[in-house]
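Re-running CGNR zinc finger domain-containing protein to confirm reproducibility after the cluster update. Everything else is unchanged from the original entry.
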Amino acid sequence: MPTSTAGGSPLAPSPAAELVLAFVNTRALRGERERLADAASFRGWLVDAALADPGDRVTDADVAAARELRDALIGILLSHAGAPVRDDDVSRLRRFGELHPVHPVVGASGAALVPAGAGVAGAFAGVLAAAAELAFRGTWSRVKACRNPPCRLGYYDRSRNQAAMYCEARTCGAQMAARAYRARSRAAR
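Result of re-run:
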């Protein structure tokens, strides 16, 4: 998946942000099904995301690797929402980058990072290239995961001050506030 360093509003998610969010939101969330349940469901997601062809081989090991990448990305996205950075997540992303490299392609109108491989390996590289593009643009910190533990939905923080910690203030934010209130009440007794 080619990425570019072209400009755009930081308040609107770029295609790179949408790809990263689509990948981290493959979990069974809010009535959706788990998209990394098995090789067939993962292949379906890859095809839907235009990261692989229908005939590409997807193994159970690929599914396990996809879950590991997804979990590491969610950990980083949680840190964007104020949670502490876990060294394990950084190490896993570094390892994925080494296993699934990208190549820079420079042209007259800009530059792009493109996956060095095809199939599932290329898909992993494409997700990592999208994250790198966001970092180059200065919008990587806007891609976050909800701090509400049962949710962890990935979202794009459109606020001007980048202070959002929850995917939705009315639901997840309110749930976290209620939990904190109950905890303070219990501690006061």
